[in-house]
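protien #1 (seq + structre)
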Amino acid sequence: MHKMELSCYAGSLASLKAAIECGADSVYVGGESFGRDTLSDDFSREDLIEGIKFAHENNKKIYVTINLLPHNNDFKEFKEYLMDLNKLNIDAVIVSEPGTLITVKQILPDMKIHLSNVSNVYNYETANFWHDQGVDRVVISRELSIKEMETMRLNTPESLELEAYVHGPVIMSYSGRKLITSYLESKGKDDYSSKKKYNLTEEKRKGQYSPVYEDEAGTIFFASRDLCMIEYLDKFIRAGVSTLTIEARLNDENYIKEVVPVYRKAIDDFYQNNFEYNCTDDMLEKLKNATYRKHTTGFYLDETIDYD
């Protein structure tokens, strides 16, 4: 049975180091340019250099997100950015649309390419299409069930890696514009501060708040509950998923130090116990205590389980 990779998003250099020290095999980061994941602390070029050095010294990998949708006049700078990333010796880039994919292949033909979940891969035909275009890994949409992932694995070549999110905040919607800021400024709200925090609520679900975040990349809406699949980790492995990812771009290193070790232990125990899996109450309790937000299994199971 294949060996599972544990990956983690990190929003700062401190979070990157914490993820690696706590057992992550790889870390996703947003760079200074073209990375949508700038909602936490930006990774400067100096941070990225230090993070890559730290990761490689520990035999771990660094992936850089390129999730913004470039306009025509962005490609000159984008090509220069790619060449700089290559000099830094990153392990892969994560793209989300054809133009960036084509450009990466032209500029860095040997670079590993992952396809972001924002590209919405729902079936094996789409996964195979992207693989034929040069994608090495597909991040599966969170709306699929584990059974559908298994079907995708059975109908795609082994050379295509499949990745799934298993823990953390769930992005519901993304816009390339700063919607709240633009609206308030259009109404003459001179005292508007970008530091203010907002949440979405639905009239019949009072008390369930969906966080809204804005930065220069745009507006992102998150679900009211965090994903938590620790009880069902073995099902992802048996379905043929090759990488399990923890979403932590908005969390600090303390959160990562609580969450990553639990998933590291769970994966290691599965292989060490002859592929028998046992999620303990202690694991669930540690994950529950890592955040004030409640947990859910999302769309992965036949019936969604929401944890109190």
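ok now protien #2
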Amino acid sequence: MQTVLDLAPPPGFRKAIPVTVKLEVVIRQHSLCTKCGKRLGKLDDTQFDHVPALQLRCWDAEAKDTTPWANDPEFIQAKHADCHAQKTFGSKDELTRGDVTEIARTKRIAKSTEEFRRKMLAKVDPDVPEPAQPKRPKKKWPSRPFPKRGKNGSPRSRGEEGGPEAEG
């Protein structure tokens, strides 16, 4: 049986990292932060970062977990709180995009790709519904009458052939 992978985990999905996994990660890193290389403090003061971020992983609906699974110690890093914040939100000093930016970008690209895919399928298979597009009202050019002028710039009526000099 083939497992179907969705693009991302459902909203609100997050499993708590067990203490045994946390200890395994800290021991593997020799109690050093992966970002700055300095010694980590107490386990309560240490933050654990999923690499790649959970929302950037594929979702396995059958296993009800991400791929790779959320609490796999090989994909978790121990960091200081400020080092973790730099990775999560990005850093203007280093011009790096954070996980939050990448997640938003990935969702935007996935949405536009899905819309494009549906449009292409609708062209080939008429049974596939085309994505609903909001109807925009047609823009109407503003109309205003322009004054009729003669050759020398004076107003004239339609029946007149020439300007004021044509009289007489």
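The beta strands are 5-6, 47-50, 58-60, 65-67, 76-79.
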